[in-house]
Amino acid sequence: MRLIFLGPPGAGKGTQASRVATILDVPHISTGAMLRDHIADGTDLGRQAAERMEAGDLVPDDLVIAMLTDRIAGEDAVPGFILDGFPRNLAQARALRASPGGVVDRVVLLIVDESEIVRRISGRRCCSRGHTFHLDDQPPARPGVCDVDGDPLEQRPDDSEEVVRNRLAVYGRETEPLIGYYEELGLIVEIKASGPIPHITKQILEAVRA
Ligand code: AP5
Q1: Closest ligand 1 atom, CA of 135?
Q2: Yes or no: is domain 2-209 CATH 3.40.50.300?
Q3: Where are the domains of the chain?
């Protein structure tokens, strides 16, 4: 199954994509995580992306589209995938649809109030490998330490209040128009993404399997 998870920053795209991908046995492909890996590895792409990401702006389309289309051409993505954070504007959506294997089965739109988004992002803590926790809702077993690999947990550099405000504005301007684009294609399923994480996972699975 080929799925896109769409929603504002902090909606839970990464949390749910990781859980649903494990259940469906397909790769979870997060362009944000791929770009953070490039920055950590000091690649050319990472250097070109860093400043934009720190400010909460989108990384240029040509860079992200090339990175993503290359990734979905991988053998592990042939049976399906979940895209988290891509596409983020109409140019990316059209490029995806035109690329081999880029026609998706469903677009899962996660709906969350803005006050809940702010609460989630301010409490989010991640390790350098991208495992994600929340101080109140998904606390690690030992404070400040990743349950998976024992690495320290930190706040993402783009989770400061000012940058989050810009990320939300960019979402409204660039990404929200995708809702209409995918509605016209008959692909959108809406999920109310507040409440217990396992309950939301169950709702997503029911919706995409219907
Ligand atoms: P990216 O990493 O994609 O960030 P984002 O879209 O802003 O999304 P987030 O990762 O902030 O949130 P999420 O929805 O995944 O929520 P999460 O599951 O973590 O992108 C970062 C940057 O990279 C962009 O700003 C841009 O610069 C660049 N970029 C990436 N893709 C790009 C593209 N295609 N084109 C151009 N540039 C691109 O959950 C949030 C918190 O809430 C966690 O702490 C979690 O534990 C908690 N939580 C989750 N679900 C629940 C729940 N049900 N109840 C309570 N708490 C919950």
Answers
A1: 44
A2: yes
A3: 2-209
- pLDDT digit string, tens, across residues 20-41: 999 999 999 999 999 999 999 9
pLDDT tens, position by position, 80-104: 999 999 999 999 999 999 999 999 9
C-alpha–C-alpha distance, residues 38 and 173, integer Å: 26
Ligand 1: which residue has its CA nearest to atom 23? 32
pTM: 0.95
Which member of 2, 19, 36, 124 is catalytic? Answer: 124
Work out which ligand 1 atom sits closest to the CA atom of 5.
14
CB-based contacts of 168: which residues, under 8 Å, 6+ apart? 8, 9, 114, 117
Q: Please state, in angstroms and rounded to a whole number, the distance separating the CA atoms of residues 16 and 112.
A: 13
Does residue 124's CB lie within 6 angstroms of at least one atom of ligand 1? yes
How many whole angstroms separate alpha carbon 142 and alpha carbon 123? 16
Q: Give which of 129, 157, 149 is closest to 33, Cα–Cα.
A: 129
